[in-house]
Each structure stands twice: as structure tokens, then as C-alpha cells.
Amino acid sequence: MEWLKVKLRDIVKIKGGGTPRRENPEFYNGNIPWATIKDLSDKIYLSDTQEHINEEAIKLSASNLIPAGNIILATRMGLGKVVINTVDVAINQDLKALFCSQVIYPNYLLYYLKSISNSIERQGVGVTVKGITVKQVENWDIPLPPLSEQKRIVEILDRADELRKQRGEADALSERILPALFIKMFGDPANWDIEQTEPLGKLVNIQSGGTPSKKNPDYWDGDIPWVSAKDMKRDIIYDSIDHITDLAIQETNVKYVEAGSILIVVRGMILAHTIPIALAGTRLTINQDMKALTPNCNKINSTYLHATLKALSKFILSQVGTAGHGTRKFDTEYLLKLPIFIPSQESLKKFDAVSLELQKILSGITQARDKLENLFQILLYRAFSGDLTAKWREAHMTELLQEMEHQTKALNLQPTLF
């Protein structure tokens, strides 16, 4: 038995949103969650938002209140991000709400959209901010198994996602170890004596990144890591989702970043809540939303600088501003002015030794996380290829065929098979 294939427009209704006038602060003094791209993450559910509005704001704007239990999809910035709201939320114009019909479970559709998130991202069009149209969304092909099989798929993926959630909580704890160690040895940055610091710009060489033309496939079939914000989820970066070729290095403004450099995201919506900072574990390249910092003196080294910037992350976050199109930006001017505590050489060596042991522990944690994430991605692929529930399907064939017949009638479709 093969699944039906339908267009998304056949099984959902799509509703957009809007932004109440910023000139009226009263609009943003309510208790109604108002979702923007900065509220969407890799998590499955959305239960609250950073900003809230009132009923008057909804009445006098294009924003719409979306009842709990529907799918919220990013269609401008953050392409590929998708969640289900567990509370009623209003949405802005960069998001779309998908209201599922009776033939598909919202959680099933959510997992399927997550499985094609990279494809969704590639469909984006735009020079500065990439977006997709409602027409594009409506024309996506959706594999549609019977409802009972959808439920079975969701049950399996929910269990796998729960393991990811538990792993994420452990990761969050491990992320705080290095800054805590640094502060124990060198004190809280808020209490540093300014005479014992030097501006970052005097201690490092700074390097920008770039993006080879997506129109030239010869730039994108290589094995050179090309790091962007989506790769900055760990302390040490050895690889990336995207890769470029030697030709891209030769013909564009993209240059190598050497191992040991500190990578920091300086532009993007992720800066609304996080400052991604990592150590380059290998020679790689970066995109234009990032900077690479390399110590140019013996006063500090890469290990120390990495930990320093981690300890300064709250201060850095407070310096983030807003660039064009509403995206967040940390200006290079402020980056180079960051005060860096200059340790004694003895303290620096001691910190290196302790950090090395810590990195061994964190490396094991990272490997465990990566294995779990790979397993989840494999399950996603198998779920929507039909392989994951193949044996279960065979045991319930009669009921499934009846359900599929009801589906076809409900959709008024010819049984095109996936």
C-alpha cells in the first residue's frame, strides 16, 4: 500500500499576520502573546513569546489571533522553522498559521515540515532577507498516510524528541561550565579593574566572511566547511552543514579562517537572545554574518579568548542593536572595544591545563548529542519514506485501506500515490 500525495493547499488553510504600530506603546502592553521569528526555535512547541500585545492592537492591525494547536511557519527569515502553539498567539507578517483539515494531524504535518526544513530554506528568495510566498507553500507536496498511521508516526517521533529535549537540558548545563570556571579564576567581568584590561581590537586580528554566489553550483560541491549561524551550536566547530570548493576561495571574497580562531555571530535574529561563540577546530570559512578573531600577541591565546567572550556574553547581548529589516546586529566598533582582562602568564598556563581536561569531557557530551540528533534525523527520513511504520502497516492493512478510501473521498481527489 502506498500513501496518497496531496498539495498542502488541499489539507490546510493559511492565515497571515501583521505588526501593530510601534508608535503606540499601549498596543504592546497587553497579555496576548505576539509571535515573531525570534520566538521560533528548534523546539516543537511554542508556549510563550518575547512580546505581548492587547486586543486593540489585533483589531487595528493585520495581526491575527491563532488558536492553540495550530502550526506556525516562518516564511520570511528563519526559513524552515516551524512550531505548534500550545496557547492562543497573535503572529506578525513573517509568519503564517496553518490550520489543518480533518484528514491530517497537526503534529504529523509539523514533523514532515521539519524533515524538509533544508529544502524550505533553499526555496527562499531575496538579497538581504530571504522569504517564500504563500503560493510556494500551498504547492508543497505532502505524503498523506491514513490517520491511524499518522498517529503511529507521531508517537515514535515524540518519543525520540523527548530524548532530544533531555539531551538539550544536559547540554545547557554543560554550556555554563566554561564561563563558571573562567569567572572562578579571573573574576566576574563586571568587577574587573579597567587598568588590568585592554580593548579586544589591540589583541586580535579580525576577519570577515562572505557568501559565494548560489547561482554557481561549482562553488557549492566541495568539502570546505562554510560556517553560518545555524552551525554555531557547539563550543568547537569541526564541520558545517554547507560546504564550498577551492574555486569559491579563488574567485570570491571568501577566505580561509585558520584553526584556533574564535568565531562569533554578529548579525541575525539569533542575537535577540543568544550570542553564538565557538572555537574553530579546523581550517574553515564563514559567512558574512560572522567574524573570526585570532590573537596577535602572547598576552592571551585562543582558549582564553574563547572563555572570555563566553563570560562576556551577557554584556555583549546588551550591546546588540537593530539593523535594516529589523534584524539584530552587533557592530564591529563595539566588538573591538570589548574590555579583555589580561592574566599573568602563570594563570594563563594554569587555565589552559584545566580547560584541556574540561574540553575532553565536553567533547564526549557533544558526541553523544550528535549521535542522538543523527538518530532523530534518520527517524524523520524513515518516517516519511514509509519505512518506519512498514511492519505496523502490514499488520493493520485492512483498516488502513478503509481509512485511505475515506481520505480520498473527503479530499475529492483521484488517488495519486506518493
What structural keywords apply?
single chain; 418 residues; alpha+beta; Adenine-n6-DNA-methyltransferase TaqI, Chain A, domain 2; 2 domains; 5-stranded mixed beta sheet; 13 helices; 37% helix; 19% strand; disordered C terminus
How would you describe this protein?
The structure is a single chain. The chain is 37% helix and 19% strand. It has helices at 55-59, 106-115, 117-122, 134-138, 147-175, 177-186, 246-251, 302-311, 313-318, 332-336, 345-385, 390-395, 397-411, and strands spanning 4-7, 12-15, 32-35, 45-46, 51-53, 64-66, 71-74, 82-85, 89-91, 95-100, 141-144, 197-199, 204-208, 224-227, 236-237, 242-244, 262-265, 277-280, 285-286, 290-295, 321-322, 328-329, 339-341. Helix 2 packs across helix 11, helix 5 packs antiparallel against helix 11 and helix 6 packs across helix 8 (302-311). The chain is built from 13 helices and 23 strands. A five-stranded mixed beta sheet has the order 2-10-7-8-4, with helices on one face. It is an alpha+beta fold. The model is unreliable at 414-418 (pLDDT under 50). The termini are close together. It has two domains: 4-168 and 370-411, Alpha-Beta Complex (Adenine-n6-DNA-methyltransferase TaqI, Chain A, domain 2); 176-343, Adenine-n6-DNA-methyltransferase TaqI, Chain A, domain 2 (Alpha-Beta Complex), CATH 3.90.220.
